[in-house]
C-alpha cells in the first residue's frame, strides 16, 4: 500500500515552522531592545546622519545582540531537527556529524529501570469500567490496582531536549516533534481498562516538568491491562463516562498520581543502574522469548473470524487465536559473572491476548482481573517477604491481540445448558424470542462447586480468574527460567531467548482517523469515517451480554426494532454520507459527529512504536482482533526489513500492545466487519479502519525509525480540560456511626481459632501449577462500624492489616493487607440518611500461612457533619489463633 497524501518524512513546512519560531524570537527580542520610534524614523532623514554617527556603538551593540539571538536560535532549531545534542551548542565539546544520536550502536549495553505505583481509585459507589452496566457499582476491594513502569534506554549519554521541554512545559499547547529523549522509552502497564488521552497527557506533563528533555510526547506509552473490574470515570470522551455519571476526578487523579510514582521510581532505578554499569560494578541484559499458551483463552466471535478467507486462515493452521505468550526479560549481571548464567532477574514485561473479563458483570469488588492478579502472584512468589506494592521485582502482564478473545474457556452457553445460537450468540427466552441476556461465557472453574464457599461473588468466576491468572504466571515462569542465548531466529522458535541490544528508539504521532485516506496498490483509494457504533455494539458479547432486544450481528439489512431508530434520533441521526461510509454497519450512535457538550468519541488517535534491537512494540489505540493484529504485524515486519532496520536474514520481533493511549474501541478485518458482531460494530472508523492503521504504522512510523530520519510531526491535537468534563457524581456528604455505636466498633468478631487448610503447597513460590489455591474452608470475617472509603484512598497504604504476634520481639507483624489475593473488603451503607455504614474484612487462610496469634486492624477515615473535616480512626478485632 502507498501512503498518498502523507509525506514519509516532514516536508519543508516543518523546516519553515522552525524558521517561523526563529522569526518570532527575533521580533520579540527586537521589540525588547528597540530604540524610540522618533530615533528610528530619523535614520531615513539625511539631516540626522551626524546624530546617528555620534552613537555608532549603541546601534552596533543592538545589531550584534539581535544577530547573536537570531543565529543562536536558528542554530539550535536546526541542530535539534537533526538530532544533535543541545549540550554541544553551549559547550566546547565538538559535534560529530557522523555519530547518530537517535540510536545506539549494536554492541552498546541497554539500561533499564522498573517501578510500581498504586492507582487504586475509589473502591465504592463508582460504576465500574468495561461492561458499561449500570448496576455494577463497586462495593469494595479484592486487590489494589497498580501501574508498572518499564524504562529502556542507552548506556551512553543521551540527547537532551531540555530547551524544547521547557517550551512545552510553559506553553501547554506547544508540543515539539522531538519532545523527550529519542533513545529512551517508558512503557507503562496499568491495571485499568484502557489507556486514555487525557490521563496520558497528565502523566507526560508531570514527567516533563520533573525531567525536562527526558520524557515527553514521543517516548511515553500508556497501556491498560483491560480489567473490567476497576472504577470508571477517567476517560476524556463523554460516552464511556455516561454510566459513571461523568468524570470521577478522584479516580483520574489516583491513576495519574500512581502512574507518575511508578515512572519516578523506574527513573531512579534506571539512574542507579546506569551508574553501576558506568562504574563497572555490573552489567545488564535484556532478552526476549516466547511460549505457546493455548488453554487460557478462547475465540468468542468464531463466526466473524470465519469470514476471513480459508487461504489466510490456513497460514495460521486455522488457529482462531494467537497463542503466543511473549516476554521481555530484564536482568542484572554482577561484574564477576558477566556472560554467565548467574544473572539476577529484575522483572519482565509480557504480552498475551486474553480479555480482562474473568470476573463477571455481577462482581462489584475492585480488582485487576486476571492480568492484575497474575502480576501480584508472580511478584509475591518472587519476593514473598515483601508486601504487595513494596516489591522491587516488577512483573508486567500486558495485552496483545485481545479484541476477540475471552477467558471463559468452556465456551458460551444458555442458562438451560444448551448451546448459544452460533451467529448471534442468543438463547430462547421462553417466549419464542431470541435474546442475548442468557447467553454467557463459562470460565474454566465452571461447575467446580468446591470453590464456591470462598467466592466473594458467589459464582465460579472467582476461581476461574485465578486459573487464568496462574496459567499466565506459569507461562512467564517457563520463559524466565530459560538461559539467555542468541539463537532465537524465526517466528516459531518457542524454546530460545534472544539477547537484545541497541538500537533503541521511540516514534509517535497523532492521526485523525475520521478522514484518513489509504491509496491501495491497484490505484483505488478508501477512507475512514467519523466514529460510530453499530446496533451490534449494544448486543454486547458472551462475556457481558447487552440489553433489551439488541443482538450481535445486526447490520443495516437486518430487521431491528424501529423504537431504537426513534431513540437515536433524539441524540443524532447520521448523515447519508456517514451511513454510506460505515456500511454495512447500521449506525446506532454517531459519536464521532456529536461534539456537545464535548466529544462523545475520539477522532484523533495516538500511534507509537517502541524499539529495542529486533523487538518492535506497536502501541495501538484499541483492541485488535486476532486476524487484524496478524495483518498489522505482517505488514510492519515487512516494512522493517525493507527499511533495513534488521540485519540480512534476521526476522524482526513485532509485538502488538493495547488498548493504549487513546481508546479507539475495536479494530477488525474488513471481512469480520461485514457481519457486524460486537467487535465489528465497535470498529469506530468504518470498514477500512485496519487498512488505515496498517498504512500509518508501516509507511509513517517504521521509516521514522531509520537512522538519521527526521522527527515525525506531532500531528493534530485537541486540547481538553478534564476538570471541565461532566461530573454528576456527588461526593461523600458525611459519616455517622449507628446510634449506640462508635466508629470502629466490632460488629462481628472472629472465632477463637481457625485451621490451616491441608494442601500439598508449603510456600507461595510453589504455586505455579495453574490451579486455584483458595479453596480453603478457613474463611475469617470481621465486621466493623465504618466510614466511607472514598474519604481517603490510602494510596500506597491499606484499609486494613492482618497482623501476627511475634513472640520473640513482643511486637505485631503485618502478614496480609488489602493488596493480597486472599483478602477482601466489602463496604455496605446501612443507613443512607444517617450516613452510617459497615465494612467486612475477609481472609481465606492459605495453606502456607504461619501458625500463631492473629488480629485484624481496620483503618478508617470519617467525614464529620457540618465541618466536612476528615478524621482518621483505627479499630482492632479480638485475637484469634491460626493453627
UniProtKB/TrEMBL annotation:
Q: Which cofactor does it need?
A: Zn(2+)
The record's section on InterPro entries has: Ceramidase_alk, NCDase_C_sf, NEUT/ALK_ceramidase_C, NEUT/ALK_ceramidase_N
Q: Which GO terms describe its biological process?
A: ceramide catabolic process; long-chain fatty acid biosynthetic process; sphingosine biosynthetic process
Where in the sequence is the active site? 406 (nucleophile)
Which molecular function GO terms apply here?
metal ion binding; N-acylsphingosine amidohydrolase activity
**Chemical reaction(s) catalysed:** an N-acylsphing-4-enine + H2O = sphing-4-enine + a fatty acid
Q: Where is the Neutral/alkaline non-lysosomal ceramidase C-terminal domain?
A: 699-882
An annotated GO cellular component of this protein is: membrane
EC no. given is 3.5.1.23
- Describe how the cofactor binds: Binds 1 zinc ion per subunit.
Per its UniProt entry, what is the enzyme's top EC class, as one word?
A: hydrolase
* PANTHER family cross-referenced by the UniProt entry: CERAMIDASE (PTHR12670), NEUTRAL CERAMIDASE (PTHR12670:SF1)
- Identify the residues that bind Zn(2+): 226, 355, 623, 666
Which Pfam families does the record match to this protein? Answer: Ceramidase_alk, Ceramidse_alk_C
Q: Which UniProt keywords apply?
A: Hydrolase, Lipid metabolism, Membrane, Metal-binding, Sphingolipid metabolism, Transmembrane, Transmembrane helix, Zinc
Neutral/alkaline non-lysosomal ceramidase N-terminal domain: from which residue to which, for each copy? Answer: 112-159, 166-694
Q: Give the organism's phylogenetic lineage.
A: Eukaryota, Fungi, Dikarya, Basidiomycota, Ustilaginomycotina
Q: Which family does the UniProt entry place this protein in?
A: Belongs to the neutral ceramidase family.
- Span list, region Disordered: 29-49
Q: Which organism is it from?
A: Ustilago trichophora
* Name of the protein described by the UniProt record: Neutral ceramidase
Residue ranges of the TM segments: 62-83
Amino acid at each position: 500500500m502507498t501512503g498518498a497524501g502523507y509525506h514519509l518524512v516532514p516536508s519543508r513546512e516543518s523546516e519553515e515552522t522552525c524558521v517561523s519560531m526563529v522569526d518570532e524570537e527575533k521580533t520579540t527580542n527586537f521589540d525588547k531592545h528597540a530604540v524610540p520610534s522618533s530615533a528610528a524614523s530619523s535614520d531615513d532623514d539625511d539631516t540626522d546622519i551626524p546624530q546617528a554617527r555620534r552613537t555608532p556603538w549603541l546601534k552596533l551593540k543592538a545589531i550584534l545582540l539581535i544577530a547573536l539571538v537570531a543565529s543562536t536560535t536558528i542554530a539550535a532549531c536546526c541542530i535539534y531537527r537533526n538530532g544533535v545534542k543541545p549540550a554541544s551548542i553551549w559547550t566546547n565539546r565538538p559535534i560529530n556529524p557522523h555519530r547518530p544520536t537517535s540510536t545506539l550502536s549494536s554492541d552498546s549495553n541497554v539500561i533499564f529501570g522498573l517501578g510500581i505505583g498504586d492507582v487504586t481509585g475509589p473502591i465504592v459507589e463508582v460504576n465500574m469500567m468495561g461492561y458499561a452496566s449500570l448496576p455494577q457499582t463497586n462495593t469494595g476491594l479484592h486487590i489494589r490496582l497498580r501501574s508498572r513502569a518499564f524504562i529502556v534506554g542507552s548506556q551512553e549519554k543521551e540527547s537532551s531536549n531540555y530547551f524544547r521541554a521547557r517550551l512545552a512545559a510553559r506553553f501547554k499547547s506547544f508540543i515539539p516533534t522531538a519532545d523527550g529523549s529519542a533513545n529512551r522509552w517508558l512503557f507503562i502497564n496499568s491495571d485499568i481498562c484502557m489507556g486514555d488521552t487525557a490521563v496520558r497527557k497528565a502523566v507526560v506533563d508531570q514527567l516533563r516538568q520533573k525531567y525536562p528533555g527526558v520524557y515527553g510526547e514521543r517516548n511515553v506509552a500508556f497501556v491498560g491491562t483491560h480489567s473490567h473490574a476497576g472504577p470508571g470515570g477517567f476517560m476524556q470522551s463523554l460516552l464511556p463516562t455516561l454510566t459513571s455519571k461523568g468524570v470521577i476526578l478522584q479516580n483520574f487523579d489516583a491513576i495519574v498520581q500512581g502512574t507518575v510514582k511508578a515512572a519516578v521510581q523506574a527513573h531512579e532505578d534506571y539512574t542507579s543502574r546506569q551508574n553501576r554499569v558506568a562504574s563497572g560494578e555490573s552489567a545488564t541484559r535484556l532478552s526476549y522469548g516466547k511460549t505457546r499458551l493455548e488453554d487460557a483463552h478462547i475465540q468468542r466471535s468464531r463466526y466473524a473470524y470465519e469470514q476471513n478467507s480459508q487461504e489466510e486462515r490456513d497460514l495460521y493452521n486455522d488457529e482462531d487465536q494467537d497463542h503466543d505468550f511473549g516476554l521481555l526479560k530484564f536482568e542484572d549481571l554482577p561484574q564477576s559473572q558477566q556472560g554467565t548464567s548467574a544473572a539476577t532477574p529484575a522483572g519482565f514485561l509480557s504480552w498475551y491476548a486474553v480479555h480482562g473479563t474473568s470476573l463477571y458483570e455481577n462482581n462489584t469488588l475492585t480488582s485487576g482481573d486476571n492480568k492484575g492478579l497474575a502480576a501480584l502472584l508472580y511478584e509475591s512468589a518472587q519476593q514473598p517477604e515483601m508486601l504487595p506494592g513494596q516489591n522491587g521485582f516488577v512483573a508486567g502482564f500486558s495485552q496483545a491481540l485481545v479484541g476477540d478473545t475471552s477467558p471463559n474457556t468452556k465456551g458460551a452457553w444458555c442458562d438451560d445448558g444448551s448451546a448459544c445460537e452460533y451467529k448471534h450468540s442468543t438463547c430462547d427466552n421462553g417466549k419464542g424470542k431470541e435474546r442475548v441476556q442468557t447467553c454467557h461465557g463459562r470460565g474454566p472453574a465452571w461447575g467446580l462447586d468446591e470453590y464456591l464457599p470462598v467466592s466473594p461473588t458467589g459464582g465460579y468466576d472467582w476461581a476461574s480468574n485465578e486459573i487464568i491468572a496462574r496459567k499466565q504466571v506459569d507461562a512467564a515462569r517457563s520463559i524466565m527460567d530459560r538461559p539467555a542465548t542468541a539463537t532465537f531466529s524465526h517466528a516459531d522458535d518457542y524454546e530460545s531467548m534472544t539477547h537484545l541490544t541497541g538500537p533503541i528508539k521511540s516514534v509517535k504521532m497523532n492521526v485523525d482517523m475520521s478522514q484518513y485516506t489509504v491509496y491501495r496498490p491497484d490505484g483505488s483509494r478508501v477512507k475512514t469515517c467519523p466514529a460510530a457504533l453499530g446496533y451490534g455494539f449494544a448486543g454486547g458479547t458472551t462475556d457481558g451480554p447487552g440489553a433489551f432486544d439488541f443482538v450481535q450481528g445486526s447490520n443495516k439489512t437486518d430487521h431491528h426494532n424501529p423504537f431504537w431508530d426513534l431513540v437515536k434520533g433524539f441524540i443524532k441521526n447520521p448523515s447519508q454520507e456517514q451511513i454510506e461510509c460505515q456500511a454495512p454497519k447500521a449506525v446506532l450512535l454517531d459519536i464521532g459527529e456529536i461534539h456537545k457538550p464535548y466529544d462523545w468519541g475520539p477522532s484523533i488517535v495516538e500511534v507509537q512504536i517502541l524499539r529495542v534491537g529486533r523487538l518492535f512494540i506497536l502501541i495501538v489505540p484499541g483492541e485488535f482482533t486476532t486476524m487484524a493484529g496478524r495483518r498489522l504485524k505482517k505488514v510492519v515486519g515487512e516494512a522493517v526489513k525493507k527499511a533495513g532496520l534488521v540485519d540480512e536474514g534476521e526476522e524482526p520481533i513485532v509485538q502488538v500492545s493495547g488498548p493504549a493511549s487513546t481508546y479507539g474501541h475495536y479494530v477488525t478485518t474488513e471481512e469480520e466487519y461485514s457481519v457486524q458482531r460486537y467487535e465489528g460494530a465497535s470498529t469506530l472508523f468504518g470498514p477500512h479502519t485496519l487498512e488505515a492503521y496498517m498504512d500509518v504504522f508501516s509507511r509513517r512510523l517504521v521509516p521514522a525509525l531509520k537512522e538519521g530520519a527526521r522527527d515525525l510531526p506531532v500531528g493534530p491535537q485537541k486540547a481538553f480540560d478534564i476538570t471541565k468534563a461532566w461530573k454528576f457524581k456527588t461526593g461523600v456528604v458525611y459519616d455517622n456511626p449507628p446510634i449506640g455505636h462508635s466508629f470502629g466498633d466490632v460488629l462481628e468478631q472472629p472465632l477463637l481459632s481457625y485451621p490451616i487448610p491441608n494442601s500439598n503447597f508449603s510456600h507461595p513460590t510453589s504455586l505455579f501449577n495453574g490451579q486455584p489455591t483458595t479453596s480453603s474452608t478457613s474463611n475469617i470475617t470481621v465486621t466493623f462500624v465504618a466510614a466511607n472509603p472514598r474519604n481517603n484512598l490510602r494510596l500506597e497504604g491499606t484499609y486494613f492489616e492482618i497482623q501476627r504476634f511475634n513472640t520473640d520481639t513482643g511486637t505485631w507483624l503485618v502478614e496480609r493487607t488489602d493488596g493480597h489475593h486472599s483478602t477482601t473488603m466489602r463496604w455496605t451503607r446501612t443507613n443512607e440518611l444517617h450516613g452510617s455504614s459497615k465494612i467486612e474484612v475477609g481472609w481465606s487462610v492459605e495453606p502456607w500461612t504461619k501458625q500463631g496469634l492473629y488480629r485484624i486492624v481496620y483503618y478508617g477515615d470519617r467525614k464529620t457533619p457540618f465541618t466536612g473535616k476528615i478524621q482518621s480512626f483505627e479499630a482492632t478485632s479480638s485475637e484469634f489463633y491460626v493453627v
